[in-house]
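subagent[fold] <- orchestrator: predict structure for attached chain, return tokens only, no commentary.
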Amino acid sequence: MKRFLLALFLVSLVSLSFFAGKVYAVNPIPGYKVPCTDTRDNEFNSLRPYQASPCGDSPKAYFCANQVIIYEGFHSTEKCEGLCPVDIFQPEKEYAVEISNTELPIYGNTENVKNVTNSSDEFDDAQKLNEYVSWYLSGVSGRAEYGEVTADQLINYSGPLKKLLPQVIQEAQRIRTIESVSTDTTYTDSESSPDSSTEIVEKGNHNQIVVCESGGKAVPCPEGTKMRLNDWNSGDLSIFNTFFNWLGTDIWNKKYPPLPWQFKENILYQKAYNEWKGKSCAILPVVGLVCVDIAAGGVADVVPNKWSDLYQYVPLANSSDKNAKMPIGGVQIQALGGAEIDIQDPKYAILQEPINMFAHTQEDSENLSQLKQTYLPIVCDKNGKCEELKGSVDENVETGLNEKGECNLIDVRSNPGDNLFTEHPPSEMRIKVTSYNVTQLMCDEEIFENIKDANGNIIGRRPTGFFKCSGSVQILIRSDGKHPFATEVWNSAVAETTSVFRKTYPKVAANAPVSCIADIPGVSNATYTPTEGTDEITVRDPSGKRVDPENAQLFFPHIGGVYDYFLKGIQTALRPQGYGETVTSGLFCKPQTPKECEVDVPDSAVSSKLLGSFKANFIDLADRWSQKCPGPDFNLAEECYNYVASQAPKKGVNAAFALTIWLNESGASNYCEGGRTTQDFGINLPSLYQNFIGQLKAFLGMATQKLCSGVPGFSEPMHGWLSRFQSSAGVCDPKDTVATQYYYDVRDTTWSWITGCSKGGKFGITWPTDTNCP
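subagent[fold] -> orchestrator:
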């Protein structure tokens, strides 16, 4: 039987996937909180009836952390040049940043299809099943928005669950969904309650609309009479049955079906099941079970059977949202631009953390768990004791998380999904920073006054002895995030040995069609907006790269792997060779190591001052640079040190400075850390990603230019050069705080660690072509 189910499983998968296409996003409809005990008539969609209205708790996994940086600028006028003492009091202040325009890709989509505001689908049934886990598992048949099921939907787009699960298992699963409406769940709400010990008691699901009916037939909602989940759990099937039960005749009178394990004998189950279907039954001596459909005889059916006819519309899983906080993982307060501050503990307080509302996570997890059960091997010991083989994640599945629980951004996948509703309260991360004193600023712009003659004409200028002073304070907020059911979906769909994916690819090893399984993240756009007195902000992604706050991203664990292997890989395996998409195999799995240097350069070609302990120090720094991929196996520090140190002087560039930028930008070509877009020397050209030779050549050409020469406002020439080198706008702007911070980072960390040249707030060299130090 299980072999038959596996074969049917494979056939059902391949029949769904021949018409994949692109999906286009639209603006989502705002949701609002509906308590789990309440309902409303205008439910959004049967796969997400109550947006932003979570029910019950859920297991959660962390997703990648962005950092939000808030800048507070300070200005003064002092009779002092350089680093000057000041006394500026900054009172206690609240800062808030709103996060919006986020969505969950790949799990599901109810916004680009027929819903309470869309009268028609924006993409076809094939795209639904090819692009989204929810639609793939649930199928397009039996959805309240579409009314009666067509033959095409039933044959081609029902989804594997409805084709593979035995009918009785489907019926039992639907009963669980019905009962979730009336079953209390008790848990501690640590996601949305300020008191983590607050105990919540609520229903496990909304009493959602299942189908709309007219004359006992399904019609597209909102036409006809709405039938909700709890309608199958309240009242009797018919007064007729109630009467005969009163007489002592045992007749099935519930609106949901009987299950075989509720009866001592199969004939009793068959009798009850036929009665639920609307027939009148009796068990007669000798003859056995006899059932008659009164309606078939031309007489009005005394037993209404719409409850059994429309039972197929009851969902197989709980479709309520799950909430998950984006907790603030820490706050750092630092002075920049020569500023110094005096701040006392406690430095900050967390006032509010944003909360996301995830659709489809519990639904997908429950449906995948059911699908896994269609074919699980049975193992028996020598005593004949048998049990289902439990799944485990084997060594050929690469983790997508580092030791901090952050995503490795090796590659990403995305498509338009359902809104996470971070624009709804509480939508902001909000902190309070205690008062502090600014005790030092950089005073570098001399103030002049006009000299006038007796007639008031300006005849010259003279210094006043005063200077314009400025500096800033950086408030760095690490924003973590949680994802409901992420691990459960990943394991059931792909990662475990008993996963659905492994039914088609049982061997994942070298020389197999899939040599290893990469844990690829999913990604969503996100907008970070400062509010209520918060001024300038920037955002760093999990790799540390600064990004535009209005075009930032959130990265979710595992989702890209589910897309590649579960939604795409299985279907490719079942199509004729050459059809379908290439299955991800070997890519992004083992940490990638760069190629060897093209030229083997001996020590004799390198200046002696760059050898010995100087070289050993650089290699040691490179080996410790990456927490995710440490050690000599993942960088080119030792192999290519001599090449960099010899090539830079040939172009007139300080070799130690070239080494500094190499280490600072890529950890000395650590492609495991940086992924496919590694810029060895910070040259942001896609054609030169992971191109050590090309990157070095382009960098050395840039290093010979005196960038920002003569532009006022920079503290020293290297401030201007590095600011322009880092500038995303490609301009010389001394007020660009992001680019200026890069100058301080390089001057006070990497350059100082390698050379020791950074002293007294100065770089130690005037231009990259200056060889005075080291």
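orchestrator: received. Logging for downstream: DSSP finds 20 helices and 26 strands in the chain. The chain has a mean pLDDT of 84.
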